[in-house]
Amino acid sequence: MISKDFIQPQRQSVAGILITAIHLLRLAVKVIIFPLVLLFIKIKANVFYLMLIIATLFILSVIYAYFYFIKFTFHINASKQEFIVDKGVFNRTHLGIPLEKIQQVNIDQTLVQKIIGVYSVKIDTAGAESKEVSIGAIDEELAYNLKQQLLQNPILHQENIPVQNEDINTSAFIKISPLTLLKTGLTSNYGQSLLLLCGFIYAIVHYIKEVLKAFNNDKGQIEHFMNSSLTLFSISFLIPIVLLILLATNVIRTFIKYFDFEISRHNHSLLISSGLFAKKNTLITPNKVQITTYNQNYFQRKMKLFNLELKQAHGGHDQSDKEKRNANLILPGCSPVEKDDIIKLILSQLPANGKVYKPNFRFLNLPIFFKIIIPLVVYTILYLNTDVVKPFLLAAILYALIGITMLYISYKNHQITVTDEFIIKQSGIWDITHEIITPHKIQTIAAFQYPWHKGLDIGHVNLHTAAGTIHFKFGNYTQIKKLVNWWLFQVESSNQNWM
Amino acid sequence: MSFPFVFHEILSCKKIILVAVFKRAYAPFHKMQDFTNQPIDLDSLPQYQETPLNKPSSKYWKVIVINIFIFLILIGLGISVLVMSDQDIKAYLYLILSGYIFLALILFIIFRISLNKRGFALRDKDVIYKDGVIAETTTIVPLSRIQHVELNEGIFSRMFGLGTIEIYTAAGSEGKISLAGIEIELAKNIKEALIKRLDYTQAEQ
């Protein structure tokens, strides 16, 4: 039944039944466990019944999973050059994906899959009719075979960068050591980790309250505890602890995601693998990368570290966060040499020095008005009329000063550099980001101007690509128009495709 | 070895070696004399901002007016139900009425301005679309980046023989343009021409 060229429709690995069943069970348990436990506590029923319910659920899941397994087939239609998946127990779905539309093939392994010894294959597509297909359980050999078959598309490889012979090997050429990961973890993603931490603490408090409510014991202990502990002394004590937890979460997150990070070359594409518990493999082809970005903050500059991100086409629809994560590859903690190596590999050369375009100082007007002046006016009105906000005078002054400084830094950092081959946008306040695109990745150009800027000759330009938009604001409009004509010439005079 | 690469190598060589390398490297190139590499004069490139633009059909204003009236009637019905049912609101009748008229005026003015500013042009290699009420935006889509083209006919547009052309790119909703209020015959022709162009560029690649 199982053939290596995938011409015949074939099923997943038999272990797939178990994977699907466990997945379903987890979903079901996640939804019902909490109300169920509460119910059981309320009516004081035997734990045995709880186990019985879960066991029944498991059996139902296995039965469904069996039929799902039987009905799930996939194959490659060689004549139509399509990858075809038929699936669905009650509603049958027939998916046909043209091979040339396949953007990326990911081979992943979750913890459960690791134990059973199978892999999942996820196929990302680009284009207006974007769909994502995933095959839940497949042997390692078959998975890599399938990936090779799917990406072995003659059309795609024509316009690739010229590759020398020594490039065709599969040895890892970039590895990121635990020490580098530690450094990266300590210096990046503060905002994300803070949000995560807040969400986590909120969830815990919420759950504790729910449990207390269930036992009819909620007399506001938590609120009381919080109020009593929020004295000035405890806050000064609390802040370092929060910072410490923040750094720790950051480091742990970085390690879970990027442990054993490796990039190796496979013919024309890059294989990236990383992960502590679940190993994630991603294969990308350089010419499908739309925007190449790297960023660095103050600490990272001192340590000579860069974070690289390769953004791929997202098929022109709004993505969920998960999809974004899959389409955008983040390479944490590269050295300057490694950064240059990867950029060279993706763009076939390093951007040379070009002409730099900077924004007019009016860049600052609107943000200062909305973010500084309006809040300050509101504060002043409150200050004059009530006593509530009076103790925060220092905070308000600090806010204004820090706010203006930050806006000024963002204005100083906002610029584009244009060379013959590239457009490089620089921006950021703390993390300074460079986004690099080649003109032929541009899908649409939009230049615009407000009427009150006509006399000043100030205008803006947006370069829309399949992986997001590059904005340049408050530039000299005459120059922008010249650039637009130049980019249009570059896009329209060559028949280089964007993908 | 690619052509520009060889060329670069030659530039960095000394004169004597140059001749030797030149003979060796360029022997297979018969079209050598045809190759030129003049610097591009940026000012002599085609200027998008000087392209004469086509206006939407004058009948399109009627479609807009009908749509505004429908919107205003719906809002008016909502307000009258509210006023009838609540005595307290009745006291503010004149205020509400003047607000309503103000809204109607603003709508007509905004749509008139927006219509006057709209324009589109088809060039050899791209489509230009200009619009905007406050900011004046010029959007340009190179033909080789078009994913697909749609022709939509709304119910009122159809009454006046108009259509809307929607041009999609891989950049999604942000990179899309729609040319509204075009005479249906012209719209069909434009769509036809764009699609033909699409097939042509795709076949080329």
Structural summary, described in words:
- The complex is a heterodimer of chains A (499) and B (205).
- By secondary structure, chain A is of the alpha+beta class.
- Chain A folds into four domains: 16-155, PH-domain like (Roll); 181-258; 269-359 and 414-493, no CATH class; 361-411.
- Chain A has helices at residues 16-43, 47-71, 111-116, 140-151, 178-187, 190-214, 221-229, 232-258, 298-303, 321-327, 336-347, 365-385, 393-413, 477-493, and strands at 73-77, 82-87, 93-98, 102-109, 119-125, 132-138, 172-175, 262-266, 269-274, 279-284, 289-296, 306-312, 328-334, 355-357, 415-418, 423-427, 432-437, 442-449, 458-465, 468-476.
- In chain A, the strands form four sheets. Chain A has a seven-stranded antiparallel beta sheet with strand order 6-5-4-10-9-8-7. A seven-stranded antiparallel beta sheet of chain A has the order 13-12-11-17-16-15-14.
- In chain A, helix 1 runs antiparallel to helix 2 (47-71), helix 5 (178-187) runs antiparallel to helix 8 and helix 6 (190-214) crosses helix 8 (232-258).
- The two termini of chain A are 35 Å apart.
- Mean pLDDT of chain A is 81; it is low at 154-169.
- With 205 residues, chain B is of the alpha+beta class.
- Chain B has two domains: 3-34, no CATH class; 53-205, PH-domain like, CATH 2.30.29.
- Chain B has helices spanning 3-11, 15-26, 60-85, 87-90, 93-117, 155-159, 184-204; strands at 119-122, 126-131, 136-142, 146-152, 162-169, 177-183.
- In chain B, the strands form two sheets. Chain B has a three-stranded antiparallel beta sheet with strand order 1-2-3.
- The longest helix of chain B is centred in the middle third of the chain and has 26 residues, at 60-85.
- The two termini of chain B are 22 Å apart.
- The model of chain B is unreliable at 1-31 (pLDDT under 50).
